[in-house]
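hey so u asked for the seq, here:
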Amino acid sequence: MAQDRTTIRLADAQGYVDATVSGNDKLPAEPDPQVVYHWYRAQRVQATAGGAAGRLLDGPYRAFHPDGQLREQGVFEDGMRTGEWRQWNAAGELQAVVHWKHGSLHGDSVAYAGGIMLHRVSYRHGERGKVHPGEVELARQAEVKAQEREARRSKQQEDRKAHQAERAARKQERRKARAAGKERTKEPRPAKPHAGQEAPAP
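ran it, structure tokens below
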């Protein structure tokens, strides 16, 4: 119950955290060996798969960068992540929005960079599903397609030029052949001797 919870503030390697912990060490009746449980003991928040050895985190959770900038925010239920969780970098830019259910990824997980969505992955009870490309990937795919179209266009232009050059060369050869034939027809032929006239000595 709410009155059994306690809010704590602890330093960690990346800054500090504000977490809500249960008022006792009671563990889930049937811990899931595949689920990571988060718990508090000896001034530390720890995470272990399949169980816990301290007071479970149970309620709002916020982690901060050393300068007080929000780093991560979400909710724990009986030591398990649940609902929507968000992460920010030191500059305050949103990096990820992740959805959990009973300690397993469930729903959409979206990654960002510089305010632009990188990709979106759909999960169902921890099972990774379809990956949806983000704005950056879609832009990259569009650029690749544009480059492929340009390459095809350039290849077609080169093929046309080569074909035109080949036709011009064949045409030039035919012109030369016709010109050579006309020159042969212009060569003088030896005169035939008249009757009773001797042919000139060679």
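The chain has two domains: 2-133, 134-180. Residues 134-180 form one domain.
lmk if thats what u needed
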